[in-house]
């Protein structure tokens, strides 16, 4: 198993375990303060202010100043994004390595070509001068 694939699997496993696929998110406003409470281990039916918000914020919850939303996230999209990002970075790294290696191979024949060109120039100058003498 390649290092790239292993890293991708590890990242996706961490995203799945730590973040989970579903969550209940409550946003509460108290005066000018705004607090966000998140619970991942909860069902759709239990996504209510009373079951998420701690006791210290319960007064705000009773005044209906909290808005709770049940969110479902697709970890396959996250997985695909991570894979595509790693593949793009790997492709760019391979391109840079290949460019550096091929630069030396391509650069060498240019020097030989330049050497041949200078020799041809010297010959032409010699023969041109010689023909002018005759």
Number of helices: 4
What's the count of strands? 3
Query: Low-confidence segments, ≥5 residues, pLDDT <50?
Result: none
Shape: rod-shaped
Would you spell out the secondary-structure blueprint of this structure?
Elements lengths: L2 H17 L2 E9 L2 E7 L9 H4 L5 H5 L3 E7 L2 H59 L1
Antiparallel strand pairs: 1-2, 1-3
Written overview of the protein:
The protein has about 130 residues and is of the alpha+beta class. The protein has 4 helices and 3 strands, in the order αββααβα. Strands 2-1-3 form a 3-stranded antiparallel β-sheet. The longest helix is centred in the last third of the chain and has 59 residues, at about 75-134.
Task: Describe what is shown at a glance.
The chain is an alpha+beta fold and 134 residues long. The protein is 63% helix and 17% strand. The radius of gyration is 34 Å and the shape is rod-shaped.
Features:
134 residues, 63% helix, 3 strands, 4 helices, alpha+beta, 17% strand, three-stranded antiparallel sheet
């Amino acid at each position: 198993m390649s290092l790239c694939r292993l890293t991708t699997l590890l990242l996706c496993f961490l995203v799945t375990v730590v973040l989970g696929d579903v969550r209940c998110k409550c946003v509460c406003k108290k005066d000018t303060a705004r607090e966000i409470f998140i619970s991942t281990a909860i069902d759709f039916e239990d996504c209510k202010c009373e079951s998420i918000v701690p006791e210290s914020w319960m007064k705000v919850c009773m005044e209906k100043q909290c808005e709770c939303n049940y969110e479902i996230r697709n970890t396959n999209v996250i997985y695909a994004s991570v894979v595509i990002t790693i593949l793009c970075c790997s492709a760019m790294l391979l391109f840079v390595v290949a460019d550096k290696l091929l630069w030396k191979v391509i650069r060498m024949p240019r020097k030989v070509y330049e050497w041949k060109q200078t020799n041809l120039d010297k010959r032409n100058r010699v023969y041109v001068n010689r023909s002018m003498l005759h």
